[in-house]
């Protein structure tokens, strides 16, 4: 009987935690639109925004998280640090600084299809 209870508890825990694991996995690698932005002053995470630094804004990832942003039209990528919240434009998954946008070839078009991967 004790074994049955133990198995029931483990089974319940597995099914309760499975959605959390899949949410983290989908958040770890995502494809969508990115844009670049320039902001005067402080970011949501505290530091002053430096447009030439390799930084980004993301809605959910914790401040300080490193992500690789890959421009899918040319294959160029950059590792950036999340220091702000956003983007707040529907359909976009990340905003990158001007320096990061220049590095991945996003400056001219302003918006492009990217893949982000949490490092």
TrEMBL record:
Pfam families: DPBB_1
Organism domain of life: Bacteria
Protein keywords: Cell wall biogenesis/degradation, Lyase, Signal
Domain RlpA-like protein double-psi beta-barrel: start-end pairs: 31-116
Enzyme Commission code: 4.2.2.-
Coiled coil: none
Family: Belongs to the RlpA family.
Top-tier EC class: lyase
HAMAP family, alphabetized: RlpA
A GO molecular-function annotation: lytic endotransglycosylase activity
Species whose genome carries this gene: Phreatobacter stygius
Signal sequence region: 1-23
Biological role stated in the UniProt entry: Lytic transglycosylase with a strong preference for naked glycan strands that lack stem peptides.
One GO biological process term: peptidoglycan metabolic process
Protein name in UniProt: Endolytic peptidoglycan transglycosylase RlpA
